[in-house]
Amino acid sequence: MSKLKPQEPPPPDYYAANLRHLFRHVADFYDDLLTGEEQGYLRAFLGTTPAAQRLYARLLSRKGPWIRVDRLNYREIDDLDVAVDTLTAAGLIERNAPAPADALLGLLTQAERKALFPNVAGTRKSDWIADCLGRHQDEWIRHRLRGRYAWVSLARHRQARLIQLLFFGDDRQDPSTFVLMDLGLMRFERYGLERSQRQFPDRIALDRFRRLRRLNRLAHRLEEAAGLADWLAGELILPARTRQEERQRDRTLNHLGAHHERRGELDRALECFGRSRMHPGRERRTRILAKLEDRTGVECLLEKMAREPRCAEEVDFAGRFGRRMPRGDQPVTTIPLAEAPAGNIETHACDLLSSGGALAFHLENALPRGLAGLAYWAVIFEPLPGAFTNPFQMGPLDLFWPDFAEARAESIARRTRELSEPGAMRRALETTFMEKQGVANRLVSWRHFDGTLLETLLRYVPEASLLALARHVIRWPYRTRNGFPDLTVIYGRDNFEFVEVKGPTDQLQPGQRVWLKSLAGLGLRARVLKFKAC
Question: Is 236:230 a contact under the CB 8 Å cutoff?
């Protein structure tokens, strides 16, 4: 594929080459799942001219759905009109297709509006459009615009979204994902991409997932149509067959439950939240039961969340809901602050702690996540079914799913036993760092986790402490993705602590409270450094 260079325009074929790679991967990897119409869509793009491919790649990244032709200006396309005609003939775009008149009027500048419709009054855009729609029929407005400001729109939207879903595992991503890789900022791990491990083993699984995605989108429009909530509830009765189906279903159930809760339909809200395994389902159920004065039900749910939490928010909620407890039971050091520091409060704290000879690093979550990423690298990139959909992933699709560790329980247990041997953690960190430095891993921030940091950690922090942090993260990547104390401070060999910095008006967040409690449970020293205005 074409490569980008920082501060330079992209090569002429850059965007089109990326898109060709995406289409060819899907055509090869999922050919047995695609319908004739979907395969035809792939062939239409791959078989068109280079100029048309370049324009289509650009159009996919534009905000639409309607785009004025006279605003398409790309240096890599010599003859724009020919490229537009070629894409139109291939059925990939439509030219001057029917579109809402108000949307088309919104594409005009104020000067263009006055020139085309001099009899329409109003200076505010919204008022002007409303007046124009009141004076003229939609078809006449479209006819008037076609002659001066032709527009194009993407055709075959469903096929385009399907191709993105099959490649990225999520139809919300697009080919712009390639930009980071082509800038040379990323290299990607090599992992197996076998048909037997595909995200969608057959067409039935693909269609079920897409159907659940559509239901989820409809759940955001419950106020628009009477009876939609009842219909959705009926559609969600069938059990999910896979983990990814379960996630889509649970998201929709939470939206549905929130809708009923807002309307005061508490029994129906409890039913929806009760069927969901995703946060905040159990929290909302607890709050509703408390409102209904069902204390037994509240205590039962709180006990379940405390015993088997699904995320950091549940840990914090289970420990605090309905209890008059202080907001912090962790050590707090208060320091007067006479005036606002020149930089941010974390840098000020870092300088303050370093002034006594300590080594202070502002790492936040980069420390524990980086340790887990290096120590459990092979586990993270284990090619489980559905985990990897293309060669350019920074980690498996389910890395931040609540059941990530459950799906890899044997691999994590085996790796933990290996790392527990004397010297094994040190060797693992050093070897993985040397072999994988610069390779993309969602848990490792190479900008923070450099050789100097690793050398310092291995010199001053016991292996057992490093392993405890890494093991804690890999067991719950979702729960531990944020909230770790701001600073890692080292005073000498085996003498270190983690410090959460708070300015005069800052308060601890749920994830931060959970991490502080977890560090205490791991036997690792942590405290809050609170600056107080004076």
Answer: no
